[in-house]
Amino acid sequence: MGLKEGSKTTGNWTGLTKMDLYARLNLPGLPKPYSDLPADPKQDLKDSTKLVEVQIILICAYCVIILLGLVGNSLVIHVVIKFKTMRTVTNYFIASLAVADLLVNTLCLPFTLVYTLLGEWKLGPVLCHLVPYAQGLAVQVSIVTLTVIALDRHRCIVYHLESKISKRLSFLIIGVVWAGSALLASPLAIFREYFSIELNHDIKMVVCAEAWPREGKINYGTIYSILMLLIQYVLPLVIISYAYIRIWSKLKNHVSPGGGNDHYHQRRRKTTKMLVCVVVVFAVCWLPFHIFQLVSDIDSKVLHLQEYKLIYTLFHVIAMCSTFANPLLYGWMNNNYRTAFLTAFRCDSIHPVSEASPALKAKKKLEGKENHCNSPPSSQPTSV
Predict the structure, then answer these.
(1) What is the spatial distance between Cα 53 and Cα 58, in angstroms, rounded to a whole number?
(2) CA 115 to mean position of chain CA atoms
(3) What angle do helix axes 124-158 and 109-118 make, rounded to 10 degrees?
(4) Is the Cα torsion angle 241, 242, 243, 248 positive or negative in sign?
(5) Tens digit of pLDDT for each residue in 149-168?
(6) Under 8 Å CB-to-CB from 108, ≥6 apart: which residues?
(7) Closest CA to 210 of 7, 8, 21
(8) How many CB atoms lie within 10 A of CB 236?
(9) CA angle, corner 137, sides to 134 and 140, nearest 5?
(10) Is the pLDDT score of 27 beyond 70?
(11) Which of 7, 123, 238, 305 supports an S-S bond with 127, CB 3.0-4.6 Å?
(12) How many CB atoms lie within 10 A of CB 284?
């Protein structure tokens, strides 16, 4: 048995996970497992993702996530572009989040589902490098953007400052976030190999796997995983938690001198509550996946689990739920987004809207706000 890529033997595939190898367990005429699989030959390794019932559930789950993500995030981007009152600095950052989630919905999830069902990579070398890179990029963009939003609101609310960030500066920040995230995610594309495994003379399978260099006992893949856990998860959530705790304390102890300011204060509280929920959902969805990945890199015994592939896939599905959760939270917790969503749907309808319909009232409400977009904050609440 050997690892081949054309006529070239691939000698460095230390980053190859059991998820890539377990697909061969149900192939007919399979030889004995590789030495990196459990040494106990009596251990009955299995792959439940090959069961028809499990595959149907996975297909339904991924399709629902993709559909909700495409519709919800496209709608967020649409209303931010369409309505002037929605074109605030915070909403531009939220639109950037939506773009990152759309990237995952279109470029990652469909191919991940195909890979899981087929058990081997049949999508070519380009997508082999691009799909994991796109997911890493999107996750990095999302968490950094959430951090930027938290810090901006912390500065505005805790120190009683209106946002000094101009729209031009917000676009610059978004560009820097995407460029920096692209750089941090680049190892996921660089240290990747697309090759075929020759199981015996009759059976081969194509694999797309991580291939990190090693120097003695130093595994750069493990080092990168730990760094990404700190950069993509732990450190940002510590910063975000600190910012929102101070914000919430400030808003909770706020004493309003007048009715107008009190209304504006209530709007700020609702918006802050919504943004905190966005962060919590992101953190909860990605926590199991991050922990499982890290434990797999540190302790290879985890890879010997009989249902490693199924567990990995389930945690991946949970993580991907974060790609459609944000638009639902916006529509549920923010009146302006809810109004804009309703108006956008009605505007695209081919049926006329009556004068007394809720959609027309919603549209007039948005248009009325646009006519007063230059009003001071004390008399008109911000969109978000």
Answers:
(1) 9
(2) 19
(3) 140
(4) positive
(5) 989 888 888 876 665 688 88
(6) 131, 134, 135, 138
(7) 21
(8) 23
(9) 150
(10) no
(11) 123
(12) 14
DSSP code string of 263-311: HHHHHHHHHHHHHHHHHHHHHHHHHHHHHHHHHHHH-GGGGG-TTHHHH
pLDDT in tens, 244-284: 988 888 877 765 555 445 666 677 778 888 888 999 999 99
Write down the domain spans for the chain. 11-27+46-347+356-369
Instruction: From residue 186, give the alpha-carbon distance in Å to each of 111, 131, 157.
Output: 19, 12, 36
Distance of CA 100 to the CA centre of its chain: 7
| Nearest alpha carbon to residue 100 among 323, 279, 317, 286 | 323
Return the C-alpha torsion angle 367, 368, 370, 374, nearest 10. Answer: 180
Alpha-carbon distances, residue 230 vs 226, 235, 266 (angstroms): 6, 6, 34
Q: 102-112: string of b/e by CB count within 10 Å (b at 16+)?
A: bbbbebbbebb
Residue 64 has pLDDT above 90, yes or no: yes
Strand duo 2-5 + 8-9: pairing: antiparallel
pLDDT, mean over the chain: 76
Give me the CATH topology for the region 11-27+46-347+356-369.
Rhopdopsin 7-helix transmembrane proteins (1.20.1070)
* Three-class SS state of 68: helix
What is the identity of the amino acid at 52? Answer: V
**Which residues, in sequence order, are CB contacts of 347 under 8 Å at separation 6+?**
363
Kindly list the distances between the CA atom of residue 176 and the CA atoms of 96, 164, 217, in Å, as whole numbers in the listed order.
12, 18, 36
* DSSP label of 193: E
d(CA 341, CA 330): 10
For 261, half-sphere exposure in the C-beta direction (CA atoms, 13 angstrom radius) is 7
Token pair in block for residue 230: 């700190």
**pLDDT tens per residue, range 76-102:** 999 999 988 888 888 999 999 999 999
pTM equals 0.76
* Residue whose tokens read 């049926």: 351
